[in-house]
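Milestone M4 deliverable, item 7.
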Amino acid sequence: MYFDFRCQSCGNVNEAFVKPDTLTGTCPNCGGYTKRMISCPTIALSGTDPDFSTAYDKWERVQKDKVAKDKKFHADHGEDKPR
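Output delivered:
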C-alpha cells in the first residue's frame, strides 16, 4: 500500500509503497529519517493517474472537483444553494 511520509530533517513529504506496519523510512530528498503521516492509504491499481504525487494531492483534487460540479449543477438549475 502507498502511504505518505514526512522527513524529520527537511520537511519533504513523499509517498512510498510499503507494508501497512511500516512507520519509518528514508527521505529520497536528503536521506534523513521519515515518519509515516496519518492519512488514508492509497492502493496502487493499474491505469491510475500518474499526476498525483501523494495520496493527499489526489484527495484534495477530488474534493475540489466535487465542489466545482456541485456549483455548476446549482448554477445550471437556477438554485442558489445546495439542498
